[in-house]
Amino acid sequence: MRGVQRGAAICAFPIRAPRLLKTRRVVGDCAPIGRLQHAGAGEATSGAPRTVDIAYKRGKSLQSVQAKSCVLACYNRMIPYVCPELPQKQKEALSYLVKTPLVYTHVALRNWTSFEKLGVHDIVAPGAYHTYTALDFPVSIGEYAFPSKPEEPMVLFMLRTPSKPGLPMRDQFRAGRMELMDPPFDKFERNVRDQLARMLGGTGFDPARTTFRALP
Fold first, then answer.
1. From 2.40.10.10, 3.30.540.10, 3.50.50.60, 3.10.580.10, which CATH number describes the 4-95 domain?
2. Are 53 and 39 in contact (CB under 8 A)?
3. SS3 for the chain, per residue?
4. 101-130 residue pLDDT tens
5. pTM for the whole thing?
């Protein structure tokens, strides 16, 4: 598959709501991009418009498409491998980044009366196992309505950013990633129940009557 595509989009993630992309042409449901490079000499020497060759995976085969232009939006450290023609100095700058490891923990509550009694929506706890805890966003979509009454079930969001205090920031993030390589589930469970019991103590909250999942 080759040819100049105008208004085309190659998505590196599954499209769940195609109606949101009515003005764009999507190539495949999921097409991980493998290589980007400029095609031809370009306007500087030949006078011809400079285009971009895009190699991507579709199903089990590799395909390519030529576009007038391309916006590459992804994790910075991947860019030098996807677009190898970048200047060396820019490659080095992009590789400097070290991502902050994040753990999103979702706790299913039978109700959120404890938060109503405390008069809070979110709690910041520096130094705790999870540093941020909040009731889920009050979003209603179609027939789905958010739990507006404290007696209704609610999803609680908790955030953890594992690190190693005392090290340079980039090394702290690397150490945090290593911590997430094989964390026992009961460690998350024990810390979640303990932290919620301490934060919501005195409101009648029972940490034994909760279910949750952790998403690194």
1. 3.50.50.60
2. yes
3. CCCEECCEECCCCCCCCHHHHCCCEECCCCCCEEEEEEECCCCCCCCCCCEEEEEEEECCEEEEEEECCCCCCCCHHHHHHHCCCCCHHHHHHHHCCCCCCCEEEEEEECCCHHHHHHCCCEEECCCCCCCEEEECCCCCECCECCCCCCCCCEEEEEEECCCCCCCCHHHHHHHHHHHCCCCCHHHHHHHHHHHHHHHCCCCCCCHHHCEEEEEC
4. 999 999 988 899 999 999 999 999 998 999
5. 0.66
50-91: per-residue pLDDT in tens? Answer: 788 888 777 788 888 888 877 777 788 888 888 888 899 999
Q: Where in the chain is the domain with CATH 3.50.50.60?
A: 4-95
Q: How far apart are CA 125 and CA 115, in angstroms?
A: 15
